[in-house]
Write a structure and sequence with these properties.
Elements: H1 3-25, H2 35-60, H3 66-87, H4 95-112
């Protein structure tokens, strides 16, 4: 299997997570916006997330198991969220957040490592 079969799905997952994080948390800077408007805008942003996520999982399943894809997704989600939280929301992560992220990173390692 070419290396791109392993990398392209991960890159698509990263891109999809940028959209989803924006859809889920971007509105926190606009607390006075009407909730209905926020929901509709978030839904529109999430559409693009799905346009990347579905192909990523479909392609990725050729080289990763479904549990491996989910674990990879979780680490990407946390990394994207950490950057988003710091850069966009101005909220720094605490030491215990980093410890929790590291433990999830270990879970991914145990999931994707070839133990044969």
């Amino acid at each position: 299997m070419p290396l791109s079969a392993y990398i392209v799905p991960v890159l698509l997952l990263v891109a999809s997570n940028v959209f989803m994080t924006l859809a889920w948390y971007g509105h926190l800077k606009f607390k006075t916006a009407p909730l209905v408007a926020v929901i509709l805008v978030s839904w529109g942003i999430a559409f693009f997330e799905y346009c990347l996520q579905v192909p990523a999982n479909r392609m990725g399943h050729a080289v990763y198991t479904a549990p491996q894809l989910k674990m990879i997704q979780e680490v990407i989600t946390l990394l994207v969220f950490a950057a988003f939280s710091t850069l966009y929301l101005g909220e720094s992560l605490r030491w215990n957040d980093w410890v929790a992220f590291a433990l999830i990173g270990l879970a991914v390692f145990f999931s994707v490592h070839d133990w044969r």
